[in-house]
User: Which sequence fits this backbone?
């Protein structure tokens, strides 16, 4: 009886542990890729003159709308 319950818990925890480690690996890979993307991407930095919200727009446009108040702002750094 005791051996049976032990086998059941292993059957349940085995695939779970495998899934968890796979998720960790995927998350690590995504974070690595995202970090590289951020470093190589050319993004303009905007500061909203209306609400002081600082945001990034990856499109190469001189004016960008603030995501908070929809005010058009000029780029402060390329
Ligand atoms: Zn704003």
Assistant:
């Amino acid at each position: 009886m005791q051996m049976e319950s032990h086998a059941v818990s292993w059957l349940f925890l085995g695939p779970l542990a495998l899934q968890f480690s796979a998720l960790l690996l995927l998350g690590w890979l995504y974070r690595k890729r995202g970090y590289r993307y951020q470093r190589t991407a050319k993004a303009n930095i905007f500061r909203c003159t209306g609400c002081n919200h600082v945001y990034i727009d990856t499109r190469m446009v001189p004016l960008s709308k603030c995501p908070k108040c929809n005010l058009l702002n000029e780029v402060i750094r390329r």
